Amino acid sequence: MRRVLLLPGLDGTGELFAPFVERAPAGVTVEVARLPERLVEYPALADWAVETLRLDGETVLVAESFAGPLAILVAARARVAAVVLVNTWIVSPYAPTWNWLIRPWAFRVPPPKRVLRARMLGDRASDDLVTRARDVVASVPPAVMAGRLRAMMRADVRREAAEVSRGGTPLVVLHGDGDGLVPRRSVAQVEQAVPVKPTVIHLAGPHLLLQVEPEASWQALAPWLRPTSGAHP
């Protein structure tokens, strides 16, 4: 049976995956990883993941936003069926000079709902989902959010992504055309970095694509969810 292992975004809780998990197709086991708050840097998180999460040739890593570089580092060390990068990057889409602006106090107040809609959830998201997203972000210690954001700003796993691709693990890039946080150039950077052309899928949807468009996302991933005699669809 194919296993989908979800790696969450900046909040690290995985709680926002509920709409996606609830619509999982038959024959697929879905597990959600919760990132430990004590770890914010990608290499340390990769060590934890390889040691803690059960990874094998039936595991499809689905990494959202912050977790993209983590999934690449994990796949460079452990055999998996495929890596799906959802609205994420392999090299930071933002200038590292912004790091000096990232301070824990910026996360002490929950983000306004209008900002969440504009940047992360779009107009189609339900009010309940927007409220849930605000509450989940507010539940994470500000120092953890700031630390992860700084790690994100420094991220560059292009070399490891090339290794993963060269080793035969399929890379799938799922990008929401309405993403208000991750620019489209991040998709091109994946294509330029790897020796084997990744599968790129564009869907109409926001940054939290799996949550707002779960059915369309599952349909897009269907070729990689079949029990395998090989990793490719």
Care to give the gist of this entry?
By secondary structure, the protein is α/β, with parallel strands linked by helices. It is built from ten helices and six strands, in the order βαβαβαβααααβαβαα. The chain has a single domain (2-224), classed as Alpha/Beta hydrolase fold, catalytic domain (Rossmann fold, 3-Layer(aba) Sandwich).
Report on the structure:
With 233 residues, this protein is α/β, with parallel strands linked by helices. The protein has one domain: Alpha/Beta hydrolase fold, catalytic domain (Rossmann fold), CATH 3.40.50. 38% of the residues lie in helices and 14% in strands. It is built from ten helices and six strands, in the order E-H-E-H-E-H-E-H-H-H-H-E-H-E-H-H. The protein has helices at residues 18-22, 42-52, 68-75, 113-121, 127-139, 142-154, 158-166, 185-193, 209-212, 214-221, and strands at 2-7, 28-32, 59-64, 82-86, 171-176, 199-203. A six-stranded parallel sheet has the order 2-1-3-4-5-6, sandwiched between helices. Helix 4 crosses helix 5. The longest helix is centred in the middle third of the chain and has 13 residues, at 127-139. It starts with a strand and ends in a 12-residue tail after the last helix.
Features:
single chain, 233 residues, alpha/beta, Rossmann fold, 10 helices, 38% helix
* Count of runs of 4 or more consecutive helical residues: 10
The major sheet is characterized as: 6 strands, parallel
Span of the ends, CA to CA: 15 Å
- Indicate the mean pLDDT: 92
CATH superfamily: Alpha/Beta hydrolase fold, catalytic domain
Give the name of the CATH architecture: 3-Layer(aba) Sandwich
At the first level of CATH, the class is Alpha Beta
Overall 3D shape: globular
> Helical amount among residues, as a percent range?
25-40%
Give the number of domains: 1
Extract low-pLDDT stretches. none
The CATH topology corresponds to Rossmann fold
Query: Taking Cα atoms only, what radius of gyration do you get, to the nearest Å?
Result: 16 Å
The strand line-up of the biggest sheet is: 2-1-3-4-5-6
Structural class of the helix and strand makeup? Answer: alpha/beta
Share of residues in strands:
5-15%
User: What's the total count of β strands?
Assistant: 6
H-E order:
EHEHEHEHHHHEHEHH
